[in-house]
């Protein structure tokens, strides 16, 4: 059996200065929406799907950043479900709800996402 490896591309999102401290921004890459979070409190960056898996609404970028037993999380502003920003799993027992997590790279004052190359083909910047 062979495993197909998706080719990754680095997508330039925006300068760090365009992001609120301890908040999120929705980034469109083609038809995809990705929530990118800057946690100034933790001095870390995170990215996940912008769509709440419970309702399908594009709202996670407006969610509330927090912490659950040392694990960074975002709370959906509509349904208050919490998602780990490390694993994408729903915190609190609803394992069938999950969001995709994307690596964030900070380089030369800019924010980049590492995503499947197919997403970048028609990508747009913030």
Automatic annotation (TrEMBL):
Q: Which cofactor does it need?
A: [2Fe-2S] cluster
SUPFAM superfamilies per UniProt? ISP domain (SSF50022)
Tree of life domain: Bacteria
For this UniProt record, the keywords arranged alphabetically read as follows: 2Fe-2S, Iron, Iron-sulfur, Metal-binding, Nitrate assimilation, Oxidoreductase
- Kindly give the InterPro entries that the UniProt entry links to this protein: Rieske-like_NirD, Rieske_2Fe-2S, Rieske_2Fe-2S_sf
Q: Name one GO molecular function term.
A: nitrite reductase [NAD(P)H] activity
Transmembrane helix: is it a keyword of this entry?
no
**PROSITE patterns assigned:** RIESKE
Pfam families to which the protein is assigned, alphabetical:
Rieske_2 (PF13806)
* Biological process terms in GO annotation: nitrate assimilation
Rieske domain ranges (all copies): 11-113
**Sequence similarity:** Belongs to the bacterial ring-hydroxylating dioxygenase ferredoxin component family.
- NCBIfam families given in the database record: nirD_assim_sml (TIGR02378)
Q: What is this protein called?
A: Nitrite reductase small subunit NirD
Source organism of this protein record = Leptospira fluminis
Source taxonomy: Bacteria, Pseudomonadati, Spirochaetota, Spirochaetia, Leptospirales
């Amino acid at each position: 059996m062979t495993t197909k490896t998706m080719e990754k591309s680095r997508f330039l999102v925006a300068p760090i200065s365009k992001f609120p401290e301890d908040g999120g921004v929705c980034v469109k890459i083609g038809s995809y929406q990705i929530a990118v979070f800057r946690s100034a409190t933790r001095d870390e960056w995170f990215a996940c799907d912008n769509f709440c898996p419970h309702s399908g609404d594009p709202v996670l970028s407006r969610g509330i950043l927090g912490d659950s037993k040392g694990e960074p999380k975002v709370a959906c502003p509509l349904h208050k479900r919490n998602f780990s920003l490390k694993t994408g799993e729903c915190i609190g027992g609803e394992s069938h709800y999950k969001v995709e997590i994307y690596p964030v790279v900070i380089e030369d004052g800019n924010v980049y996402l590492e995503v499947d190359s197919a997403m970048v083909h028609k990508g747009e910047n913030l």
